[in-house]
Design goal:
- It is a single chain.
- By secondary structure, the protein is of the alpha/beta class.
- It has two domains: about 1-120 and about 200-220, no CATH class; about 120-185 and about 235-265, no CATH class.
- It has 14 helices and six strands.
- It has helices at about 1-25, 50-60, 65-70, 85-90, 120-135, 140-145, 150-155, 165-170, 175, 180, 190-195, 210-220, 240-250, 255-265; strands at about 40-45, 75, 80-85, 95-100, 115-120, 200-205.
- Helix 11 packs parallel to helix 14.
- The longest helix has 24 residues, at about 1-25.
- Mean pLDDT is about 90; it is low at about 1-10.
């Protein structure tokens, strides 16, 4: 009984702290850290495209770490507000920097929001996602959670665990199979996705991350920082046969078209 009471008390305290942060965020002048005409920065975070590492560039502006932010929806450090994976505060716009996996067409960002994204070769991204879920099965709970705040979320997705690559791909909905295409168009139409991509301020690519950091730093007047890989999933055991990759590639035809056309348009 006492344990239940303590847990409820802890939850109430957490809700109070979060509510207080929401209110404090409204009173902070976020645009004072950014160039004229930019009030905030929003990262269209595509899964398995080095987004967490790029987020760290912005966290470093306030001396904030991933371990400190962890799974908090809103965090304030050194008078800089950060938001993650929360639609309401993202739309409200009371932040210096925000990031989420929401499709951009689900959001209603405030004017003067600077947006950017990182695109990745669709096959490489899918393989990385599979490796990620394989990793979940190969670590203990303590290690898993210490490395990744989403560990228990992944662990609960039993339909994606302990699968061959082919079966893993079969279990993925189109939302996750063609995630970076879905982020820009719910019908997975490359033409419409490319049209919406034109509304993004900066489009970067996974294989050009150094350029992304240099360009973001210059564009947004950020303090210089080096790219650090926040989560490095080493020694993960997995196996994918060549024919499995061929079949996956056939399923990703629309996303591959979107990606290749985006490279022609935005790669520098």
């Amino acid at each position: 009984m006492r344990l239940n009471w303590l847990l409820k008390k802890s939850d109430r305290a957490k809700r109070w702290v979060r509510k207080a942060r929401f209110e404090k965020a409204k009173k902070i002048n976020h645009s004072s850290y950014l160039p004229e005409g930019i009030d905030r920065v929003y990262h269209i975070h595509i899964r398995k495209s080095a987004g967490t590492s790029l987020n760290n560039v912005f966290f470093n502006q306030a001396g904030l770490s991933l371990q400190e932010f962890w799974r908090e929806p809103v965090y304030i450090k050194n008078e800089m507000v950060f938001v993650q994976h929360q639609k309401e505060p993202i739309n409200a716009g009371n932040y210096f920097y925000a990031s989420s996996h929401y499709p951009i067409w689900e959001l209603n960002l405030k004017p003067n929001t600077f947006t950017y994204c990182i695109l990745r070769n669709p096959i490489d991204r899918l393989v990385s996602l599979y490796k990620y879920y394989c990793w979940v099965n190969q670590v203990d709970d303590k290690t898993g959670y210490s490395m990744d705040p989403s560990y228990y979320v992944l662990l609960a997705q039993e339909h994606l665990l302990n699968k061959s690559f082919t079966d893993f791909v079969k279990e993925l909905s189109s939302k996750y199979l063609s995630n970076q295409l879905f982020i820009f168009d719910k019908d997975l139409n490359p033409e419409k996705a490319l049209e919406r991509l034109t509304e993004v301020n900066k489009v970067y690519f996974f294989d050009k991350l150094d350029f992304a950091i240099t360009d973001l730093t210059a564009t947004l007047n950020l303090k210089p920082t080096q790219l650090t890989k926040e989560r490095n999933f080493q020694n993960v055991l997995y196996q994918i046969e060549p024919e499995e990759l061929i079949k996956a590639q056939e399923l990703l035809i629309a996303e591959i078209e979107f990606y290749e056309r985006a490279r022609l348009l935005y790669l520098k």
